[in-house]
């Protein structure tokens, strides 16, 4: 099984599928092709949320603002899963979620002589590598893959949590407008309301527990504190964007 | 075969796919994941239009504004098809289109002890249930499914049709801006023009039968009267939204 | 294998999938369903870019502004690939890219007696034809397909290229806002900068070789000259739309 993730929109992902299908009989599963454009950090967050739910698979990931520069192409082997991606950290949080620190990294050699296009490595470098990864008995056996200790790391900021106050930041805003923070959901245990940046908001187990249009603090499916509006957009209501600092206190 | 329908956008549907693929070898077919957000009625309309074209399958449907409340999760068995969805009526029109009133409903027991997340039952409740439905020889044989007579019904309004005048309402507006009413297409039989809310508009068999930018009344692929603009948006041109009343007379 | 391409958005492609899955066990691969709406020329360009990467397959393509008029439905057989589409030229550039002038065209007979809807031939005419194409040992053996020499052609304009000046036009603007011209990429060989409509812009091998927000001239993955902005929209920065004339000189 090969999963496909990119920020390509339409119709470039189909060229990757064509390249894969010419080379392998693997089952193809689209994860998404509308990850936030060239946003390595947000994509890394979402991949950490969804890829661990898959059975062992080859994960082809192409969110690649550095395409055509000298950034490396890598393969990561982790607990039966294999990731094929640009070396910009985009798969690292998912790798760590699945395998902790027990993973191996390989660099993928590719021609820089004009054979591979400089603008579409998804089709010309990563898809062929993913097909080889899928169909080869061992990663180490593919000639153009060489083990490396070097890779670009990516970690999310750690919140500051005191007894009654926690300060973190907005990691991503999802399609619904829900504001996902890096604050652990257990902060809300036993609370009926919380103070978010100084304003008191009800704490509930679900969006629908408040009236339509009302703000709510809840624990998202990712286990983090989420700031939302029932049937509305939390980012607008709370005035928060990615990277903004958020303080949550007992109220 | 398991079909997937939701209003999740990106990338939550991939988590459901991962959960399914860990549990079953079933073929997965995406119906759509951009149904109008939290709009049970519009999704119910579209599912009634598309699911009957499928061969017998398990249909996983998650448009679920009541997630985390006490709404039930149900399985519906109907003429060889099986539907797994929240008990909010979203699959009922498709079920009736396929099987009339000859269907069986089961309630799905799920833990409310914090094991299932309160915000993502698609991943934690419905996807596992769909995998079990697909792989079990009988629905009744799955321990946590129990037969029930109770379910939330959903029906579309019936138009008032006289000899020369019909009054109905807008059911949905599609991606093209075409206004889909609940008026039966046979109303237009033999007509060359009709009066829509008092304005005379040509009746044609296709959008392209009028000039680009012109309004047209036609019969949509669903068999209902549709108000459209050739290469334009009918909702803007007719000033109509979902739920608006529409009167069509002989002109 | 059957690939699916359309401008249907949501959820009409699912009805085509249902019709296909009732008739054939073929693997289904989505190319895209958000091709520019009713834009035959842009879709033809993108299909020429992506379909040649696929192994031999049946390609179902429905971008069909003339649905319900007397335009024909055709099947094209070309170098092992088969295309099923309205006769409006949408598949012709892809066919020629794959097979040159060595291809055969068949007209698909379909009832115009009200059996097929007049607004959704994708579901009622093209999907059944694609299933028959896929499962029949020969195209010529399907009774309702008859060989024809007539079909609607579609070609892209040829640029005027002198020693130091080339004049072409904008073929399409992609999802990223990159402006794709019909000028051959070799024009930029050895150049460090070029004059685009009189303004000097750097020529680079990749978007990322200029600062974020800066304009760049490069060769796209399609081999043509592309006008872009690193992490921005080239169409806005260059003030260019589809069909606009573009002149590139040595600077």
TrEMBL record, chains A, B, C:
The keyword ATP-binding does not apply. The keyword S-adenosyl-L-methionine applies. Pfam families: SAM_HAT_C (PF20257), SAM_HAT_N (PF01887). Residues 2-137 form the S-adenosyl-l-methionine hydroxide adenosyltransferase N-terminal domain. Residues 168-247 form the S-adenosyl-l-methionine hydroxide adenosyltransferase C-terminal domain. Gene3D superfamilies: Bacterial fluorinating enzyme like, S-adenosyl-l-methionine hydroxide adenosyltransferase, N-terminal. Keywords: S-adenosyl-L-methionine. Belongs to the SAM hydrolase / SAM-dependent halogenase family. This is S-adenosyl-l-methionine hydroxide adenosyltransferase.
């Amino acid at each position: 099984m090969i999963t496909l993730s990119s920020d390509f929109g339409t119709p470039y992902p189909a060229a990757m599928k064509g390249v894969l299908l010419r080379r392998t009989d693997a089952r193809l599963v689209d994860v998404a092709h509308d990850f936030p454009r060239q946003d390595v950090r947000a994509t890394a967050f979402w991949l950490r949320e969804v890829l661990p739910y898959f059975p062992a698979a080859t994960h082809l990931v192409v969110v690649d603002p550095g395409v055509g520069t000298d950034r490396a192409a890598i393969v990561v082997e982790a607990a039966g899963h294999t990731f094929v991606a640009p070396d910009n950290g985009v798969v690292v949080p998912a790798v760590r979620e699945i395998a902790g620190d027990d993973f191996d990294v390989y660099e993928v050699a590719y021609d820089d002589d004009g054979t591979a296009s400089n603008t579409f490595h998804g089709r010309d470098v990563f898809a062929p590598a993913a097909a080889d990864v899928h169909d080869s008995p061992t990663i180490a056996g593919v000639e153009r893959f060489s083990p490396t200790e070097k890779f670009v790391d990516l970690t999310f900021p750690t919140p500051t949590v005191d007894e009654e106050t926690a300060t973190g930041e907005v990691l991503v805003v999802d399609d619904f407008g829900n504001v996902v923070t890096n604050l652990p959901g257990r902060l809300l245990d036993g609370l009926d309301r919380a103070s978010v940046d100084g304003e008191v908001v009800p704490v509930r187990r679900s969006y629908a527990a408040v009236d339509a249009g009302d703000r709510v603090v809840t624990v998202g499916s990712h286990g983090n504190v989420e700031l939302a509006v029932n049937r509305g957009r939390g980012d607008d209501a709370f005035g928060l964007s990615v990277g903004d600092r958020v303080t949550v206190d007992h109220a």
